[in-house]
């Protein structure tokens, strides 16, 4: 794994700010593989280095990943003068980590929202180039039908000229709704695609991103850290170079 700055590694545990790490290092309280760390910007491989603070060995995570069941009524932005954001739902030790939401859900949309400080993986999850499916449950006015499914499959052009890539649509009559699968994330995309078919959305929830489903034990507004196995599920969702470039 890429070497990372000591202040990033230690603040990533959620226990100290970067400024506090600087002070700990200056006071000689941080040892890297048994030797005092020379400075807060010294770099170490998080997979192999053994870091201690005041003799306590730290468990390091190169990045932090939080799974949240976003409730309706909260903005998925890092800051917004207009209301509460998903970051306001996190405790102070996680708020310190400068996490950002991986893509946006509308204020009234619920469901799976990931928050992280891992910009590279976040980008891959969102980019249409990497073919990561996002699945939504939508309840609409009326009922989606076979023609709607075919329109989604072919790739729709919306009224304002936005060209949508082919998407999945599956009616779920028993649940009075449907499943929508997208590989891109345009502004209000599910709502706009269904509205363009004359089926306005009345309720929307994201169920999964790639191979990672929303933990059904999380009520709206609840969150937890991703497990290592779940992180692997996320990165497993990316196609291999062979699949991407057909060689
Ligand atoms: N599509 C929408 O219309 N809204 C969301 O929040 C996510 C996808």
What is this entry, summarized?
The protein has helices at residues 6-11, 18-26, 92-95, 119-126, 146-154, 189-196, 228-236, 241-245, and strands at 4-5, 30-32, 35-36, 43-44, 51-53, 56-57, 65-70, 100-101, 110-116, 134-140, 168-172, 177-182, 201-209, 212-213, 223-225.
Write the layout of secondary structure elements.
Blueprint: E1 4-5, H1 6-11, H2 18-26, E2 30-32, E3 35-36, E4 43-44, E5 51-53, E6 56-57, E7 65-70, H3 92-95, E8 100-101, E9 110-116, H4 119-126, E10 134-140, H5 146-154, E11 168-172, E12 177-182, H6 189-196, E13 201-209, E14 212-213, E15 223-225, H7 228-236, H8 241-245
Parallel strand pairs: 9-13
Antiparallel strand pairs: 1-4, 2-3, 2-5, 5-6, 7-9, 7-15, 8-9, 10-12, 10-13, 11-12, 13-14
The site of uracil has 8 residues, from helix 6.
- The CATH architecture name of the largest domain reads 2-Layer Sandwich
What is the helix fraction of residues, given as a range?
10-25%
Fourth-tier CATH superfamily name of the largest domain: Pseudouridine synthase
Shape: elongated
Instruction: Detail the poorly predicted runs.
Output: none
CATH top-level class of the largest domain: Alpha Beta
Whole-number mean pLDDT: 90
Q: What's the SSE pattern?
A: EHHEEEEEEHEEHEHEEHEEEHH
| Count of helical regions | 8
End-to-end distance: 27 Å
Let me know the number of strands. Answer: 15
Approximate strand percentage: 15-25%
Helix-strand category: alpha+beta
Q: Assign the CATH topology of the largest domain.
A: Pseudouridine synthase
How can the largest sheet be summarized?
9 strands, mixed
What binds here, in terms of ligands, is: uracil
Total individual domains: 2
What does the radius of gyration come to?
A: 21 Å
């Amino acid at each position: 794994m890429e070497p990372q700055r000591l202040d990033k590694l230690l603040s990533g545990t959620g226990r100290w700010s970067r400024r506090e790490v600087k002070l700990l290092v200056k006071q000689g309280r941080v040892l890297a593989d048994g030797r005092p760390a020379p400075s807060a910007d010294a770099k170490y491989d998080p997979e192999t280095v053994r870091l201690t603070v005041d003799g306590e060995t730290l468990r390091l995570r190169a990045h932090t990943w939080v799974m949240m069941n976003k409730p309706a009524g909260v903005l998925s932005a890092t800051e917004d003068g207009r209301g509460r954001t998903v970051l306001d739902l996190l405790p102070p030790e996680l708020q310190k980590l400068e996490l950002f939401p991986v893509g946006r859900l509308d204020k009234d949309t619920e469901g799976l929202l990931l928050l992280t400080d891992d910009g590279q993986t976040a980008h891959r999850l969102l980019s249409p180039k990497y073919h990561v499916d996002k699945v939504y449950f939508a309840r609409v006015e009326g009922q989606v039908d076979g023609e709607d499914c075919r329109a989604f499959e072919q790739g729709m052009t919306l009224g304002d000229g936005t060209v949508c890539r082919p998407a999945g649509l599956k009616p779920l009559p028993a649940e009075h709704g449907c499943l929508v699968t997208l590989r891109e994330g345009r502004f209000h995309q599910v709502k706009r695609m269904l509205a363009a078919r004359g089926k306005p959305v009345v309720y929307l929830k994201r169920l999964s991103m790639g191979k990672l489903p929303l933990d059904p034990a999380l009520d709206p507004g609840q969150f937890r850290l991703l497990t290592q196995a779940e992180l692997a599920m996320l990165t497993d969702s990316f196609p291999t170079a062979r699949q991407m470039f057909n060689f």
